[in-house]
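mind reviewing this stuff:

——
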Amino acid sequence: MTKGPIRRQLVGQRTLEGGGFPVRRPFPVPGCDQVDPFLLLDEMGPKHWRPGEAIGAPEHPHRGFETITYLLSGSMVHEDSTGTCAHLAPGGVQWMTAGSGVIHSELPSPDFHESGGLLHGFQLWVNLPKSKKMLPARYQGMTSEEIPTLEGPGYTLRVIGGEILGLRSPVRTEIPITYAHLSLGSMGRLKLPLPADQPTHLYPFQGQVTIEGHMVEEGTFVSLEALQAAEITAGSDGLECLILAAKPLHEPMVRYGPFVMNSRHELIAAIEDYQAGRLTDVHPP
């Protein structure tokens, strides 16, 4: 029997996050605490907020990993303890390396909060290796126009991080990673080359997808077998799909809420640093 292209499937679960905004979360879920090195993937919304009701994630800490927000629609404001204050517009990306510690907030922009509208986007958490967990915090932002984009017959590919099909994102990543957004028209098809040393995952968030003849429902995160390339085919309603790839860290991982470290001792230290008000003061020797 020929082996199929799909190694694992995780169906996104609906839950509430931050100040209470709805998300669809493929992981972490019971039985799967990470897809190494990816710690969390949240699809924010889509949610249509009425005027004055939009909510986000108030001020909170992080240590030991990176958070990447990719906004499809809506408008948000990011503020953090490095002094960064940035506006995130539709199609934009913010790539925050929490490293040794950062405190930040992601809230609807004042205009969006006042007018209301559709909010839809993603937050991805990427673990850092032990050697980089205590890097100084850093923020990188890209507008929609700055994201490398390739348009072909029936498809559009946006490269948020890493490189694919000859396009490279300007974002500096701490580990080799590929993060892209693929759009296919009705019954569109693309032969997608896969990184040789990075396990590849797909998340179709709008529309069904057929991968090498195997159909996957919307909202299902799939990990692919080691292939040189995969034929991706959209259904009759078209396809919107995230592409993620990275080499696993294969390191011990201990997490508690917004802190992700390699040992219980390091985790307790992170919590104590935050409680003592020194989380953002800690830097590597």
Notes: Residues 6-275 form a domain with the Jelly Rolls fold (CATH 2.60.120.10). Residues 264-275 form the longest helix (12 residues).
